[in-house]
Structures are given as structure tokens and as C-alpha cells.
Amino acid sequence: MGDEAEATTGGKYVEPGSEFTRDQRYIATRITTDGRDGWPVEPGRYRLAVSRACPWANRLIIVRRLLGLEAAISMAVAGPTHDARSWTFDLDPGGRDPVLGIERLADAYFARFPGYERGITVPAIVDVPTGQVVTNDYARMSLDLSTEWTAYHRSGAPELYPERLRDEIDEVNAVVFADVNNGVYRCGFAGSQQAYEMAYHRLFDRLDWLAERLAGQRYLVGDTITEADVRLFTTLVRFDPVYHGHFKCNRQKLAEMPVLWAYARDLFQTPGFGDTVDFDHIKRHYYEVHRDINPTGIVPLGPDLANWLTPHGREQLGGRPFGNGTPPPPPTERVTPTPLP
Q: Where is each GST C-terminal domain found (predicted)?
């Protein structure tokens, strides 16, 4: 997670007097059907390293689950907090990932790139036989799960990146990333009033644009869920618990934006979305790790999460979440249960 994992000194995320700029120099190696980068698609060979706190990792968790790739690609889950050195596997017995045998994700990065100096980020895919990180290019990773791993998709898996819609999905993803996914961080990590205000207006202008787009259609592109919905959802689901207060994105709560709130609840209640979300990990990560923003490390108790399960009424707009496919089966991997009403 470019923002969270790249702090180089004790929790420093804000550079006074400047705007936040994300380091987007990722390991661009791809895992492909033809193995042209040296890493062929092979079930059981790779392990997806994630934190449930991270929105970028949450995308991969959702896509992997929707496509039914759990048996083909195993998953290592880091704890919700980390220090300046790396994400740690402190949720596992002995604080060590049982498959990779490492305590810190950094070990997989250093196994391939000794002295690696950029961010030790999640999500990342690790080659189990060698223990080496293959890629942390999160945007490409999820697309490749849709396009390169088709031989191992479950029966009934949705088309998240259909060829006929790719240009439109790419266009929507580009503006959503710049103004919303990354926009909340540009607010939260702004080092000046001017940088914050510019990011704030850019964020809410784009949210207004999205609300107008979604007022008459159930999903962002086409009439089924796509990669575009996955990418927007992971920011929206963190909006009220974290971004509204912690990152000062406080013109309105998501729950006060009727169209986006209904859209987000629709996705949350769709199998494969809400059942991947761990609000406890999300809140602990942001409020405990970003000590230059929240020096006390106190984690707020609110907001009430039961309203995520209330009726959303989006079915009236038509559309079918999985197209001609089917929902994924109930999850087998642990997630903190969302409180019921």
C-alpha cells in the first residue's frame, strides 16, 4: 500500500508545506499464461500477501474471491499495523506466515532485490518455491487475475474486465484513482492548507460526478459489476470509519450522500464485497499507524456499522451483479463479522 508502507521513519507521512505525492514505482513483473516475464500462471505456486486494512489489497481480495481463485492462489494476511520496516505476519502462530515461513513481508522483497529501497507494500504476490516477491503492481495484478488466470476461474465467475468495456473501464478507473482513491490521501497527507483545500475540492467534485453518473445506473460501467466497481468500493467502505474524520474529508459523510451510500450498500451486500471487509483492521491501521496525524493512537469506537445492512433499493435500476454468472460461495477465510442490526 503505497502510502501506508512507505513511511521511512517512525510514522512520518506528511511533508510540511507540500502536497502528498504517491510513489508509483512498483515491481512491474507480470504473471501471465505464456510466462513471458519468467513467471507463468501455475496454480499453487504463488501466494498473495495482503492486509485487510489496505484498500489496494482489499481489491485483490475481492477479485480473487469473485473469480474463485482461492484454491489456485493462497493468501497470506498481515496484521493491521506495521512499523517503518515492514508489514508483519503477527496474526499467525509464532508471528510467521505458515507457507512462506517469514515474519515480515520485507523478507520476500529482499529475497529478490537485496537492499530494496522502495516501499514494502501490500498487495504483493510471492513465488512460494523461491520466496521471492514477483509483483506489487496492484493495478495490473487485479486485471491479470481476470485475464491471465481464466483457466482457473470458478464456474459462474463474473467478467470483471470484459473486452468490450475495457476502454470505458480504464477511463473511469483513471479519474477515480486520481481524484478519489488517491484523493482521500491527498487530503489526509496534505502538508499545507492550500494543498489540502485543492485536494478536498477535487475529491468532492469527483464524488458529485460519480453520484450523478450512478443516479440512473446501478453500476459504474455496463449493467454488471466490473473492476471499476471494485476499485471505487474499497475507498467508499472506508470513508466514514476513516477518511471523513482522520483524513478531514468532511464535507459530508458517505451516509449523507444518498446515491453513493445506496450504491456502496448494494455492493457491500453483494457476496464477495462486504464479506471481505474487516472494519476493525481498517480503523486500527489508520488511527494507530499514522501517528503524525493521530499522535495518541486512539482508535474511535464509531461509527455504527449496522446501517451497512439496511435496504438500498438499487435493484430498481436493473442490472445483474454477476451477469450470466453466479455469486461466489460463502467465504472460508476469517473476517471479523459485521455487527447486525
A: 136-289
Q: Which residue's C-alpha cell is 482522520?
A: 246
270-299 pLDDT, tens digit each: 999 999 999 999 999 999 999 999 999 999
Q: Which of 26, 161, 185, 287 is catalytic?
A: 185
Please tell me which residue in 54, 161, 187, 200 is annotated as part of the active site: 54
Dihedral angle at the C-alpha atoms of 119, 66, 255, 184, nearest 10 degrees? 20
Range of the domain at 193: 164-317
- State the pTM of this model: 0.94
Q: Which of 211, 121, 206, 219 is nearest to 162 (CA)?
A: 219
298 domain residue, yes or no? yes
- Catalytic site residue 54? yes
The answer to whether 26 is a known catalytic residue is: no
State the residue for C-alpha cell 505464456. 34
> In sequence order, what are the beta bridge partners of 126?
47, 133
CATH code, 180:
1.20.1050.10
State the Cα–Cα distance between residues 322 and 333, nearest whole angstrom.
21
What pLDDT sits at residue 7? Answer: 39
